[in-house]
Amino acid sequence: MRNQVNGRCEVPAEPRHYTNNEAPLGQLDSWFSGSTGPRVAIVRGAPGSGRTTLANVWMQRRRQNYPDGQFFVRLASGPDGPERERAALRELLLAVGHGPGEIPDSLDGRASWWRSWTDGKRVGLVIDDALTASQVRSLLPGSGDSAVLVTEAGRLSGLLASATATMVDLDPMAEPAARQLLGRLAGAERADADPVAIDQLIAVCEGSTIALCVVGTMLAESDRPIARLADKLRKDERVLRELSKDSSLSVTVVFDAAYERLSEPARAGYQALGVHPGPADVGVDAVAAAIRQPGDDVADALEELARARLVTETGDGRFLMSGLVRRHARTKAIEPEQVVSRFLGHYLGKTVATAMMLNPNRIWHEKLLPALRVSGQDFAAEQWLDAESANLSAAVEEAYRQGQFEQVCQFAIALWPYYEHGGHTGDMVTVGERGIAAAKERGDDLAEAVLGCQLGFAHLQRGAADRAIEVLTRAQQAAIRSGSKEAMATAVESLGLAYLANGDARAEAQLRRNRLLARELTRRQSALACLHLAKAVTPDEARSLLDVAAAGLAGEPYNLTKVDLWRGRKLGDEAALRRVLEQGKPRERGEALVELSEVDSEHARTYLTEALGIFRDRGLTELSVEAEARLARLD
Prior knowledge:
Radius of gyration: 33 Å
Strand content: 5-15%
Oligomer: single chain
Distance between the termini: 92 Å
Strand order of the largest sheet: 2-3-4-1-5
Structural class: alpha/beta
Largest sheet: 5 strands, parallel
């Protein structure tokens, strides 16, 4: 075997505008200054994060430490299977001086020759885009203080058990570094002159090094205003196309390469996440429903995507795909309409299940969701709704966009218990308005009436009683058109509560009318009518009405908490208010604390301060203002 001249360097040079990554470069310095080697550093990061450049830059900057040569091989391109290692070893053996005709044919023979040549030497080796730990093991040098930097394209954690190895993670490029990179490429003065446009470009790139390099190059090649490029990239459908015009520096090429390495199940999950209607993280069960595969298989596929840094695992069984990757995944989707439809069906089915769990006695579930009754569900309803809230709002919008108006109405009906229990008034308004629009498109007077009552209640929670009265007046008209006694009673009741909140003298008469209507319906509805009438009458009459309400609502903790709240409010019943603190939802607890400040003046400030925190957390502006005013009066 012939010896190669010392100092040979095949590692690509450091880019002129290289920016950031001082922390991972420092990690590499620390790792390779340790005990004898060879030592391995596995560089991990999302596609386009600059893994290869980082490895090359470190090797170039430390080349004096490896005087016997610095080498570079790429594994993800070229022949499949062991042929990749054989081809890479041939390149290395040729580089150190072996003739083509003397290199062994077998993988083991070539690996042995490579170890023999490097034994006792100090070489630096960059292995780019390694897919498996076995690939890397075949290329490791012999004993000696050599450094091996591996950029991870597949799962390489097995190396930790079989080699002296560590992991170095590349985070997305932070805003200051991204700004510095664009300034270096486009010119610092030019970038400083339009900071708003630079901010917009940085936001589009989402910390992707390749995207920032493309944007910087585009700026460097044109003297047009930076804002013009920012406006162009603001259009979602143009981003990938604009960032991929040059195949030698292309976001799409990078993501395509990562996609091609995926297994078929992972590709299916990737495609599904690309067309998922919501912006938040997605559960395994939703993806499984969308691609019609078993949950365990889908979990494995999504974990593969996480290892490839195409998604981020945000919690137990939940995964988030960023905007740039989502745009690419969308281009790969097969039959996207069907996949989106299955996502919507999954979300609607589970939302209906949660509605049945949170409010099993609600009449509108039976009247308006008969085809979607779900049994056998076993999950924590409110926790699931909390996790999926943003996705469910997006699902409503997507269903409306598709003209699936019945689905929109069903979503709005089924989400009501969650929104009402949790005080999610913003979502209640948005979804309620969409639901009413969908009901009108269908000519469904009953759904319009019920959804109008829901929307009116949302406006009441926001302190907009005048707006609530407008909405509820229209809901009452829809109820009359529907011919439904239940809808009419609900509309009359809701309008009475809006009058009450607005200080309108018509409130008591309206709520008495509601009680008469409710008597013709169910015992439960009659009990609710008594609860609401109690709010508008004298304490003496309210006492008996609340007793009737409590008897009729036995077994419904949420409504019994409301009865207790009004016992405290109308009758000064401190024990009832303390039961609300133990059992109530956040809004009711806050309101009970306000009432307790009236009956327990010694601790009034403590009660009001705690109530104010609850109201602010829930975005209950009117109640926050009231609590602040009461606190101010204590001073």
